Amino acid sequence: MKTVYLAMSADIIHNGHINIIKKASKLGEVTVGVLEDSAIASYKRVPLLSYKDRKFIVENIKGVEKVIPQRTLDYEENLLLLKPDYVVHGDDWRTGPQSHIRAKVIKLLKQWEGELIEFEYTRGVSISKLDKAIMEIGTTPQIRLGRLKKLLEIKPILRILEAHSGLTGIIVEKTRIEKDEKIREFDGIWISSLCDSTAKGKPDIEVVDFTSRLNTINNILEVTTKPIILDGDTGGKVEHFVYTVRSLERLGVSAIIIEDKIGLKKCSLFGTDVVQQQDTIEDFSRKISEGKKAQVTEDFMIIARTESLILKKGIDDAITRVKAYIEAGADGIMIHSKERDPTEIFEFCELYKELDTKVPLVVVPTSYSQVTESELRDRGVNIVIYANHLLRSAFPAMKKTAKSILENERALEVEENCLSIKEILTLIPGGQ
Ligand code: SPV
Ligand code: MG
């Protein structure tokens, strides 16, 4: 009996999959490599179904003899293990992002005179269209809430961008590019206190109260499906914080980051130029542990942010604090810096690596923006937040437009920098 190998993600099973398995089983005994979650997430999105469920589904398709995990997009590991007589695939990978994987499969098969058999791709099935349709259906609070933890499990580093309105939420949700033959997009949304306040024309001093922040959160929730991390400022009084945690869980927010400051909170980017007071380790740890006790879901994350570097208290102080915060139950640590290069962040990462108990590490490279995601990933950072860039880029563009209208006493000159009327009318579907 000849042996046949084919790989699939099997997240959305359609007639194309069944067709190809049927044809493959006529060639010999079929082993299916089901892509692991991290392999799928590395080139498109987190699968809707768990690996376990996807494996179970494929095992029960007629014609499938055996299912094994395929850990990467690359077939090499499994092909060397099985040395199959045939690899089967649809003919849709001859061109486009998968063509280099195909070329490698052909090369590997040559080693044992195996053969690649390509069947005509089943017409009328478009996974990207099915994906889009699912996205349009939306999500539920519970699914969205759990998404952040899930992403942390399967991706080496998460890329989060700031949103402060429905529209900016849509930008974070939908912006994607194809690069290095993979789809690249943001993993989630940061609701920044600085940007939420600034968009409301207010300073970033906790003057925008939680009810107002909830309005912004709701506007974003309504038009997106990606996980949300809320900038919770100091978290307020412990007695209030426990309510905040529950409100956020109810809405489907995945995480809150609270910073170890007390008194009138000022934006960290002022550093020591303004008076800022750090909380005691004991009191801030109590806030974390009371928050953890209040939480009702398994997946909600309370991330503790230390301001030791911002306040020039040194790296040892930062490490002492994060150890205590982790002990108090923090699900993640954010280390913040306003230096113009990442040296102190890198030094912190080195020491953080040595801790016995670690939780996901978050950074916000605003002042040290030259740092790359791969440099951060290599040092153990799990989440990178681009905390204010949509608002900061929108403001100069809007100001320029306002000035130009004043200058010319008409709007003709600003047209070239504006969305066309047609574009704005169709930007948000459903308006026609
Ligand atoms: C925010 O985005 O509001 C933050 C990050 O808290 S920072 O502004 O750098 O303090
Ligand atoms: Mg803030």
- Principal-axis shape: globular
- What CATH architecture of the largest domain would you give? Alpha-Beta Barrel
Number of helices: 17
Terminus-to-terminus distance: 59 Å
Largest sheet: 8 strands, parallel, barrel
Rg, alpha carbons: 25 Å
CATH class category name of the largest domain: Alpha Beta
How many strands appear in the DSSP assignment?
A: 17
Q: Uncertain regions: pLDDT < 50 for 5+ in a row?
A: none
What kind of assembly state do the chains in view correspond to?
A: single chain
Question: What is the helix fraction of residues, given as a range?
Answer: 40-55%
**Overall average pLDDT:** 94
CATH topology of the largest domain: TIM Barrel
In terms of DSSP E residues, the strand content is 15-25%
What small-molecule ligands were found? sulfopyruvate, magnesium ion
Helix/strand/pairing class, anyone? alpha/beta
Give an overview in words.
The chain has about 425 residues and is an alpha/beta fold. Helices cover about 45% and strands about 15% of the residues. It has 17 helices and 17 strands. It has helices at about 15-25, 35-40, 50-60, 75-80, 100-110, 125-135, 140-155, 165-175, 195-200, 210-225, 240-250, 280-295, 315-325, 345-355, 375-380, 390-410, 420-425, and strands at about 5-10, 30-35, 65-70, 85-90, 115-120, 160, 175-180, 180-185, 190, 230, 255-260, 260, 275-280, 300-305, 330-335, 360-365, 385. The strands form four sheets. An eight-stranded parallel β-barrel has the order 6-9-10-11-14-15-16-17, surrounded by seven helices. Helix 8 (about 165-175) crosses helix 10 and helix 11 (about 240-250) packs parallel to helix 12. It is globular. The mean pLDDT is about 95. Bound molecules: sulfopyruvate (SPV) and magnesium ion (MG). Sulfopyruvate binds near residues 192, 193, 194 and 231.
